[in-house]
Amino acid sequence: MINTKGKILVIDDDKSMLKSSMMILKVEGYDVEIEQESKAALERIIAGVYDLIITDIRMPNITGLEIIAEMRKRGMEEPVILMTAYAELPAAIDAIRRGAYDFLLKPFKPEDFLLAVGRGMRFSRLLNIEKRYKKQLEQEVLLKTRELKEAFGKITELNNEIMFRLIKASEYKDQETGTHIVRVKQYSVVLAEELGMPRDFVDKIAFSSPLHDVGKIGIPESVLLKTEKLTNEEFNLIKTHTTIGAEILKGSNNELIRLAAEVALSHHERFDGSGYPRGLIGEEIILEARIVNICDQYDALMTSRPYKPSFGHEKTYEILTIGDGRTMPSHFDPKVLEAFKNCSNIFKDIYDDDNKHE
Ligand SMILES: [Fe+2]
Ligand SMILES: [Fe+2]
What we know:
The chain is α/β, with parallel strands linked by helices. The chain has helices spanning about 15-25, 40-45, 65-75, 90-95, 110-170, 180-195, 200-210, 220-225, 230-240, 240-250, 255-265, 285-300, 310-320, 335-355, and strands spanning about 5-10, 30-35, 50-55, 80-85, 100-105. It has 2 domains: about 5-135, Rossmann fold, CATH 3.40.50; about 170-355, Hypothetical protein af1432 (Orthogonal Bundle), CATH 1.10.3210.10. It has 14 helices and 5 strands. Strand 3, helix 3 and strand 4 (about 80-85) form a beta-alpha-beta unit. The structure holds fe (ii) ion (2 copies).
């Protein structure tokens, strides 16, 4: 007979019982296997090829109840029908509570036997449908999660690109190349890490620091690109790149853009209150801006301009930590300055790395 109605394993230490069960089931078109030895039967069950198990309760080695317990322990849900003598009835009822599907009192009539098997097979089919459905659902969730991740990745990529191009637009007018912006970001990350700031802080400063000079987009080129000494008026105009930057970035619903606005506004503030535009003192200036400030200064001193040479790392280090009259250590948060001293060699590496091809 072809296996059209499902695969059944019958277990009984009584051989004649096995034979008669097999005959009844085969006539009905079931694919039947029999096993007299319960230990071997359990191994066959664990292989997971049966739709329904029919087993005697009392057998040498492993009992029918133990077979059920072993199956459930392994998460196998296939229905099990117990064959039981009248004396074992309480045990059989208890077994239903522990996960047996049904029981048959021996001796049973073939029609009762087939009725129980039919019910068991229907249950087994439902279980399989449920399993397939669950699996399909899991795969769909997996697929959707992957699609979502991809979409999110694209949005992040797009965000970064828009930001990068916005920064580029602001640099267009400046003498600085885009590398200054990237270096300030790299120094800021190094310094934040040196200060022992958490990952979240480091990520946020990595996002906001490159936007610090975005306000330069609003400064006339004639002033921004001037190589001669600036007049007071012109210098005051340059200073407004802080407020213009904040103006461009302010009012966002996005926390990162709001932080970038505050960094743009405050990156020229000094710890001793001598900075601009608000003359904030000490911790009135957000830590992110205190970090970006020293990074910006380091890079400005390292970079040569038509009106000034590069000071080189040693001299720059000296100016920042001892002062030269224009730039003084009191401009910086002592904590941040200390951290800079500890990792200034990495600053040098970042700068050198970026300029080795020039
Ligand atoms: Fe600036
Ligand atoms: Fe800058």
